[in-house]
Design a protein that fits this description.
The protein is of the alpha/beta class. It has two domains: 5-252 and 467-482, Glycogen Phosphorylase B (Rossmann fold, 3-Layer(aba) Sandwich); 276-463, Glycogen Phosphorylase B (Rossmann fold), CATH 3.40.50. The protein is built from 17 helices and 20 strands. It has helices at 21-35, 48-52, 94-97, 113-130, 147-154, 204-211, 220-225, 236-241, 276-288, 320-326, 339-349, 364-373, 389-395, 406-411, 432-446, 449-460, 466-482, and strands spanning 5-9, 39-45, 57-68, 71-80, 88-92, 104-105, 108-109, 137-141, 162-167, 175-176, 197-198, 201-203, 214-217, 246-248, 300-307, 330-337, 356-359, 376-379, 399-403, 425-427. Helix 5 (147-154) links the parallel strand 8 and strand 9. The protein binds adenosine-5'-diphosphate. Adenosine-5'-diphosphate binds next to helix 1, strand 15, strand 16 and helix 12.
């Protein structure tokens, strides 16, 4: 069978540029699809971070151009010279992407993100016109790529191409004021509620939802949730109207990168049958975070997260004294984001030196050390499209305590305290009382070592590999190819 030809477009991908889970997905899924004989090419913005890796690259298009409003902008397309991975092409224009960060700095989003990502979408379309590669499906991801399905649909040259839009987080909608709309070059007829208008503004994400052939998101529960007013962020109506074309495909884990048996970034390796190395990791984490040595015999609970209201990390503040004084646990939080939340966490932890550590930075290595060295990982999200940290935690024998929402609901099964069946602990309502009850239950099971070990073993034995996840994307691609509707 001739391989399916796919172009996969995202605004970030590991190991080149990362702010969150989208990068992990875009860095792994195309490679897993390539293993399934899909002819897939990836397109990314040419951020400074991509070139900082010192990778060799070749200029495949030294000068292409596209319009941004009435201005004609030139750009280059470079291909990263990588081996045994899906080919990666980057859209390179310095004034757009050669910056210290991907989307903004501590003061907020870059003022010209509309220009930057309209340009990115238009540049991708210009590349399509010049390329000797004729994709059958364009797979777009999140708002940064949302205009591409709109351009594809209105360009006669691309009528045959199917578009899939994957939604990694409905909370980021690429919402811009009406005066920026003219930059898109789209006909004014699109600026209406059935198009990309959103309550007096317009949304790049909505464009992706409305104009793509199919929409997927990253877990079955989130696919259902986003069709309700509670989780739909005002777009639930649009999603309900497309119900038959909305799919929920669970993310995977790259076990070549996230595996305690081989991970060179953690202090010691370990397996489900021999957790000696995990104790070494725990001791190293306690030392690195200047926690009390006596926590070796008590639970250390970790958090690795963006500090955003979505993630529910604030829910720990009212229960911190209960956790530390009554349950006698240690708490390690690694995270950056919302300034107020950072301050509140800092203040809440001040009375507890030796039991509480809050590290405010983005640090991949420390993230792994927490995932490997902690006993439990908290993911109390108000909503969670899929969530990756709970999947990593399970692989490292760190038991997740999660809110039962989105992908957390689909990946963590409740522990039975008598038998040790299950992989973690879930709570229903996004409030501190329910959260505390779940942690209390986890701590009580921790105090029963044979049962706890069983729970750790169960989590470590779960298979959330990309091989499986990629197979579901391939089936969806094949379904799209059979769909002959206009
Ligand atoms: P989201 O994409 O919503 O941020 P996910 O759980 O899907 O959440 O993915 C988060 C990814 O970002 C994980 O790989 C996690 O380890 C990583 N991460 C989050 N915060 C930090 C941090 N402060 N330092 C290092 N890695 C982080």
């Amino acid at each position: 069978m001739t391989p399916l030809r796919i172009v996969f477009i995202a605004s970030e991908a590991t190991p080149f540029a990362k702010t969150g889970g989208l990068a992990d997905v875009a860095g792994s899924l195309p490679n897993a699809l390539r293993e399934l004989n899909v002819d897939i090419r990836v397109i990314l913005p040419g951020y400074r971070q991509v070139f900082e890796h010192g990778l060799r690259h070749e200029r495949v298009f030294p000068s292409l151009n596209t319009l941004l409003g009435s201005q004609r902008l030139t750009f280059q397309v470079r291909k990263l010279l990588l081996e045994n991975t899906a080919p990666i092409y980057v859209i390179d224009r310095e004034d757009m992407f050669d910056r210290p960060h991907l989307y903004g700095n501590a003061d907020g989003d870059y003022y010209d993100n509309a220009e930057r990502f309209i340009f990115f979408c238009r540049a991708v379309v210009a590349l399509m016109h010049s390329w000797d590669f004729a994709p059958q499906i364009i797979h777009c991801n999140d708002w940064h790529t949302g205009l591409i399905p709109a351009y594809m649909q209105s360009d006669p040259a691309f009528r045959q191409i199917k578009t899939l839009f994957t939604l990694h987080n409905l909370g980021y909608s690429g919402l811009f004021s009406s005066d920026k709309f003219a930059l898109t070059g789209l006909d004014a007829s699109h600026y209406q509620p059935n198009g990309l208008e959103f309550y007096g503004k317009w949304s790049m994400l909505k464009a992706g939802l409305v104009y793509s052939r199919a929409v997927s998101t990253v877990s079955p529960t989130y696919a259902r949730e986003i069709q309700t007013p509670e989780y739909g962020k005002g777009l639930d109506g649009v999603l309900r109207s497309r119900q038959a074309s909305v799919f929920g495909l669970l993310n995977g884990v790259n076990y070549q990168m996230w595996n305690p048996e081989t991970d060179a970034l953690i202090p010691a390796r370990f397996t489900p049958d021999d957790l000696t190395g995990k104790r070494i990791c725990k001791a190293a984490l306690i030392r690195a975070c200047q926690l009390d040595e006596s926590l070796m015999e008590r639970p250390v609970i970790g958090i690795v997260s963006r500090l955003d209201i979505q993630k529910g990390i604030d829910l720990i503040i009212p229960i911190l004294s209960e956790l530390i004084e009554s349950l006698k646990v240690g708490v390690v939080i690694l995270g950056t984001g919302d300034g107020e939340m950072q301050q509140s966490l800092q203040r809440a932890g001040e009375p507890y030196p030796g039991a509480f550590a809050f590290i405010q930075r983005f640090d991949e290595e420390l993230a792994r050390k927490i995932l490997a060295g902690a006993d439990m990982l908290l993911v109390p999200s108000r909503y969670e499209p899929c969530g990756l940290t709970q999947l990593y935690a399970m692989k490292y024998g760190t038991v997740p305590v999660v809110r039962a929402t989105g992908g957390l609901n689909d990946t963590v099964s409740e522990v039975n305290e008598r038998t040790g069946d299950g992989t973690g602990f879930a709570f229903k309502h996004a409030d501190a009382t329910d959260f505390l009850a779940a942690i209390q239950k986890a701590v009580s099971v921790y105090r029963m070592p044979p049962i706890w070990k069983r729970v750790q073993f169960n989590g470590m034995s779960m298979d959330f590999s990309w091989e499986k996840a990629a197979q579901s994307y391939l089936s969806l691609y094949q379904e799209l190819m059979m769909d002959s509707s206009p």
